[in-house]
Amino acid sequence: MENKVIYLIGHYGVGKLTIAREICARTDARLFDNHLINNVVFSLIRADGKTPLPERTWELIQVIRDQAVAAITELASAETSYVLTNFLADDEIDRAVYLQMEDMARRRGSAFVPVALSATDEAHAKRIASPDREERLKHTDVASAERVRREVPMLRFAHPNRLDLETTNLSPREAAQAIIRHAEQAQP
Fold first, then answer.
1. What is the DSSP string of 78-93?
2. CB burial class (10 A; 0-12, 13-18, 19+) of residue 15?
3. In whole angstroms, how far apart are CA 14 and each of 3, 52, 107, 175?
4. Dihedral angle of Cα 125, 159, 64, 124, to the nearest 10 degrees
5. Per-residue pLDDT tens digits for 35-62
6. Contacts made by residues 102-107, CB under 8 angstroms, sequence distance 24+
7. Helix H or strand E encompassing 6
8. For the chain, what is the mean pLDDT?
9. At what angle do helices 92-108 and 57-74 cross, to 10 degrees?
10. Do residues 13 and 124 make contact, with C-beta atoms less than 8 angstroms apart?
11. For residues 163, 103, 61 and 148, what is the CA-based torsion angle, rounded to 10 degrees?
């Protein structure tokens, strides 16, 4: 798989990172997980996945994201594929992040493949409280994660390479295979 930008988008605990790692293990793609960026700030402010974040947190994270996007756009080989992960709400700020990633793919001449991941409430609840999530400074409070799923709609977007994938009954391997097959057909 060459020159693809796969963007895994979904609520907390839907399996974005697990599936992204599986895609990278099966291809030569590189992982650009949102916590690679977030945790630079989260680790310094001791984010615990439960307590509300300080007001300027996302503003500072955007500065780091901008630099990472510049590195991928300006320094990385054009043949390299990337798997990105993120939770994007249907608001102006997250729409700008989505458009930034879409523009990054366009500027690289890459096929942009946004993937909307979903899962049942039961699957979310089971995945949210895992020790791995806590270690990675990810959201771990089951009740607040459920509230976010109910009250914060995911970003609505249309794209010719879009894939919708329900992960509840798929293993990470099966989900990764479906995404890879879809991405291999995607055109810039």
1. TT--EEEEE--BSSHH
2. buried
3. 25, 21, 29, 11
4. 0
5. 889 889 988 998 776 788 899 999 999 9
6. 102/159, 104/5, 104/69, 104/72, 104/73, 105/5, 105/188, 106/188, 107/73
7. strand 4-9
8. 89
9. 10
10. yes
11. -30
Q: What is the Cβ-side half-sphere exposure of residue 144, based on CA atoms within 13 angstroms?
A: 9
Tell me the two tokens of residue 184. Answer: 């291999």
Which of 75, 70, 69, 45 shows the shortest CA–CA distance to 57?
Answer: 45
Closest CA to 60 of 72, 44, 49, 48: 44
The residue length of the chain stands at: 188
Question: Whole-model pTM?
Answer: 0.87
Structure-token match 């060459």, residue found? 2
Q: What is the arrangement of strands in the sheet containing 82-86, beginning at the earlier edge strand?
A: 30-32, 82-86, 4-9, 111-118, 163-166
Q: Which residue has the tokens 């930008």?
A: 5
